[in-house]
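Q: Here's a chain of 293 amino acids. Please give me its 3D structure as tokens.
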Amino acid sequence: MMKKYSRLIPSKDNSIDILSLIGRQKNGIIFWQKTGFMRHCNALGLQSFVTLAIKQFSPINARLEVNNYVLEFDDAGTKTIRIGLKQEPNSTNCALFGEAHTVGTDKEFHILVLEVIEFISKHMGCKFFVDDASGFLESGSEEQLSKYLDANRLERLPQFERINLGWNAEPNSPHLQVLMDGNNVVVEFVLYAIHKYKGFQESAKARITFKECVQYRVGAPNDEGFYVYGQSRFKKYEVQWGEFYQVHNSNWQNDFPDAVVTGIAGERTNHYLFYFKDETFECISSSYEIEII
């Protein structure tokens, strides 16, 4: 391991989060605090260490998004470091945990991420485990790092397939309901009954059943957050508000805020995204079924 990063320990151990892709991910860097006696972190500590990192490395934007701090180092939002807390297994204590998708960026950003982790580690007084998919942390070879980033750059961009052709949710009062049915997640809402989506009676409802759900979330952004504040992490890909998508080439294992975990991923997993009036719904499941009720 490079002496420059003497506080960083290469690791593929996913015991801190068995549902993560630690040890299998190809997107860049995942890092987590090496805890021990009196070596843990809480929300106030996280805020303090992130503030120090912001002052040291001057990202162009920094924000608290759900429970994670997001540090952005370019206008496109591709050079991003997410830092948050994760509860340790079988414990009430939390460890600092973060990730950065360096595939699709450049070697300078990949190295910057390691420098940020080393800086935080030094100020916390503890070491960090790091899963560096490129192998750079161990080899120190910038040539190897560049080859890895180039080889994985093009295939990682997400693609959005619109599902709701010919129908949509009511744009003002969809009355969204989300419930569990065994290992399925069921979403019900009022349909948009105008001529553009003809065939539905007034106040007709749709039910979407997401089969074998792995995780889901209902939360930010709402329509104002999407249009006014640009809060959707997918807006840069020209997705439209109020639409229902399947996300191909999704990086949901590393980029799925505030997830409600309901199962373990099987051989087939799909990422679904639906923007409603007051909230966004996302789900990872094997498939879905739609019916009018």
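Q: Can you summarize the key feature?
A: The radius of gyration is 21 Å.
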